[in-house]
Design brief:
Number of helices: 28
Oligomer: single chain
Distance between the termini: 67 Å
Bound molecules: iron/sulfur cluster
Structural class: alpha/beta
Helix content: 40-55%
Shape: globular
Number of strands: 24
């Protein structure tokens, strides 16, 4: 296995992953996930980064040595479809495999492979660990993995955010997969990925291979091929054998949990992922102890799909009302449980979306409110409801008072490019080119650069998916006066932009301009490597594929590579691309390393240089407030968060002047903007030299002396 070891794997993480039988593992959710995989005897692991699962990819990269020792084959897949297709190894062979990616965007990309995998079924356990990115803080379309599990008939685990429960789900997930010949999805919300805790570890298990016979005589079984008539048999097998086998396994092995309580005429059925939130709300309402013992009985579904019908009936029997906790829409669980109760002739009232919102995350305040409403309508008359309703009333009151104090509306704080980001100058260049060429349609893609759609740039009329920006421009191009500009990162380019966009454009002889923002990493997901990540950036394992050469191999003739920060050249090249008579795809590669990654990479190097007496120069920019006109065009054209305003110390200037904060990294963009857009010449650059040469020290002293003489000082 070739794994880049560019990151420093935390010693503590490594030690936890090596924990033996009976030792206590102590860390956070995602490390526990990897430990769970190691304890399960997986033969192969694949995956693609994306929150909230990116950290899992980082851990796997850093755990290369441990994985090698166990004989586990690991690949960091080119996209989620490639990762999901890896699970094909488990169709014919009794080998366990796992893949990790973000859902639902990654599940969308992987859908074809997932459908085929679920149709054929598996011999070896196949686990998809999915980062469920739904709700507040999510940056993607608001859909849920549940729909994919239902339509493909994959089983969906949603363990309680507790390390023991997560690791059990992984181990039992493989067993469930094998017992029912079905791939299993395990969804982890962001809090589950980062929850901390302990569990009793087991020994890591080496990868199981195939028999010597199968090694030299690969299995062919047409029954496992997704073609007619096999697919008709697959569908029957899913319903007649696999689903009942799964339900039996879930029941027999008690994958779901029941927590009894004395208020036994009511109950709560919650997806495992919401369990902690539900118990916390009950604690605040005086209905659960600090150690989590609830007075309201709880049926915790660590398996979201399929439901074990008789378990549901057993829990609901004798209860007048049950609350269903399942965020988002459609209300899959509520509808399914309603159906089970009707078929089982139970008259228990189901309460769900009457008290909870149809859309949005079930945050603490939402859970408090929904549970309080349920209890107001359904709890026994003997229960004092004052402490139950008080917490949500208190939160409502606080929110109301905050809104009052802040005025009409609390302003939304939008994300923006980091200070010194190499992508910001490209957006400025597009704005400046637009002034000369006229307005053009911009097709956006996924990555840090999607922030071009926000202020101050507001560019990018559509976002259709990762690597799909160019494809999304193909029908807009012919109806527009000017060529369409597509913005795509190097991450999107390798993920699918090359195959989906570039190949399609070249094959259809489409016109258009593609700007590839080559920052060197999958920056938005935490700086994972890409095929074009260079050796210098990420260490020996980086392949460093060349985007320009790749494009030329695909017959793209107009390809220019420029430094992202060279605003003048970028504006000129954009104008050329937009006005040239040359037909076909024009590609500009804006080359600039992600500033955040560069800072992390360079800081230890610079510290070492300073320590060893080597010369280090740190630049930053500032604004001469005597020259600043207070027009603020520089801010509107740059948007750098280090560039802001302050009150002028000149009493004759009523408007605030621009100023640069200490967070400036000296990228020089604001100065270039002022020059290129012919703004006031108020920007100046300073350089802080550490371990300066003797000549530099002498020159600095001479300068200071000269300045003091000119100011009439003598000291
Ligand atoms: S992470 Fe890197 S590429 Fe993304 S906004 Fe920050 S500096 Fe720019
Ligand atoms: S030089 Fe200007 S644009 Fe660059 S980081 Fe500093 S303030 Fe921001």
């Amino acid at each position: 296995m070739e794994v880049p070891h560019g990151r420093t794997f935390l010693c503590q993480g490594s030690a936890e992953l090596r924990k033996r039988d009976g030792e206590i593992f102590e860390s956070e959710g995602i490390l526990a996930v990897v430990k769970g995989l190691l304890q399960s005897g997986v033969s192969y692991i694949g995956g693609y980064q994306g929150a909230p699962i990116s950290h899992g990819i980082d851990v796997l990269k850093d755990a290369g040595e441990i994985l090698d020792d166990l004989g586990i084959h690991v690949e960091f897949s080119g996209n989620e479809a490639i990762a999901a297709a890896m699970l094909g190894a488990s169709i014919n062979y009794p080998v366990r495999g796992a893949v990790l990616f973000k859902s639902t965007v990654g599940t969308n990309v992987a859908s074809d492979a997932i459908s085929n995998l679920c149709s054929a079924g598996v011999k070896g356990g196949a686990l998809m660990i999915l980062g469920e990115d739904y709700g507040d803080g999510s940056a993607i379309i608001q859909e849920r993995t549940y729909a994919f599990a239902l339509k493909s008939q994959a089983w969906l685990l949603d363990p309680r955010p507790d390390l023991e429960s997560i690791v059990n789900s992984i181990e039992q997930g493989f067993e469930l997969s094998e017992a029912s010949s079905t791939p299993v999805m395990l969804q982890l919300r962001i809090r589950a990925c980062h929850v901390t805790g302990t569990f009793v570890a087991k020994d890591n298990r080496p990868a199981t291979g195939v028999s010597a016979e199968a090694k030299t005589d690969p299995i062919f079984d047409f029954a496992n091929v997704c073609l007619p008539p096999s697919v008709y048999r697959h569908e029957e097998d899913k319903m007649q054998r696999r689903l009942p086998a799964a339900k039996k396994f879930i029941r027999d092995n008690k994958l779901n949990e029941v927590f009894e309580g004395d208020l036994d005429k009511i109950g709560i059925i919650t997806l495992g992922g919401h369990y902690n939130g539900v118990v916390r709300a009950l604690q605040l309402q005086g209905l659960a102890s600090l150690d989590g013992q609830s007075r309201v009985p709880i049926y915790c579904l660590n398996v979201a799909y399929p439901l074990a019908d008789d378990e549901v009936l057993e829990f609901c029997a004798g209860k007048s009302a049950v609350l269903i906790v399942e965020e988002g829409q459609p209300a899959y669980l509520e509808d399914a449980i309603g159906g089970i109760l009707r078929r089982g002739d139970l008259q228990t009232t189901i309460v769900g979306k009457q008290v909870f919102p149809m859309a949005g995350e079930y945050r603490g305040d939402v859970l408090l409110d929904g549970i309080a409403k349920f209890l107001e309508g359904s709890s026994p008359t003997t229960l004092d409801l004052t402490p139950v309703t008080q917490p949500s009333a208190h939160v409502r009151d606080l929110k109301g008072r905050a809104a009052e104090m802040l005025g009409a509306e609390v302003p939304i704080r939008l994300p923006t490019f980091c200070t010194g980001c190499p992508e910001r100058p490209v957006m400025t260049a597009l704005k400046l080119a637009e002034k000369d060429v006229g307005k053009f349609h911009v097709s956006s893609d996924i990555g840090c650069h999607t922030m071009s759609t926000l202020k101050p740039f507001n560019m990018g009329s559509t976002v259709l998916g990762y690597g799909l920006g160019l494809a999304a421009s193909s029908a807009v191009g012919p109806i527009m006066e000017r060529p369409v500009v597509t913005l795509m990162g190097d991450g999107g380019f390798w993920h699918s932009g090359l195959s989906n966009g570039v190949v399609n454009h070249v094959a259809n002889q489409n016109d258009g301009v593609l700007v590839i923002l080559k920052n060197g990493y999958s920056a938005a997901t935490g700086h994972q490597t890409l095929p074009s990540t260079t050796r210098e950036q990420m260490g020996d394992g980086a392949p460093g594929l060349d985007i320009a050469k790749t494009l030329k191999a695909f017959d793209v003739k107009w390809v220019k590579t420029l430094r992202s920060y060279d605003l003048h050249a970028m504006v000129g090249t954009l104008k050329d691309a937009l006005t040239t008579k040359t037909k076909g795809l024009k590609v500009i590669i804006a080359d600039g390393e992600c500033q955040l990654a560069k800072a992390r990479r360079m800081k230890p190097i610079e510290r070492e240089r300073i320590k060893t007496g080597k010369r280090v120069v740190q630049a930053r920019f500032d604004v001469d407030e005597n020259v600043c006109t207070g027009d603020h065009s520089c801010i509107r054209l740059s948007g750098c968060p280090s560039l802001t305003i302050k009150d002028s110390s000149d009493p004759l200037k009523r408007d605030p002047v621009a100023t640069v904060l200490n967070t400036c990294v000296g990228c020089g963009h604001c100065g270039e903007v002022a020059h290129e857009a012919i703004l006031c010449p108020s920007f100046y650059k300073t350089e802080q030299v550490r371990n300066a040469s003797r000549f530099e020290r002498f020159a600095a002293r001479a300068n200071r002396w000269m300045i003091s003489r000119m100011q009439g000082r003598t000291g």
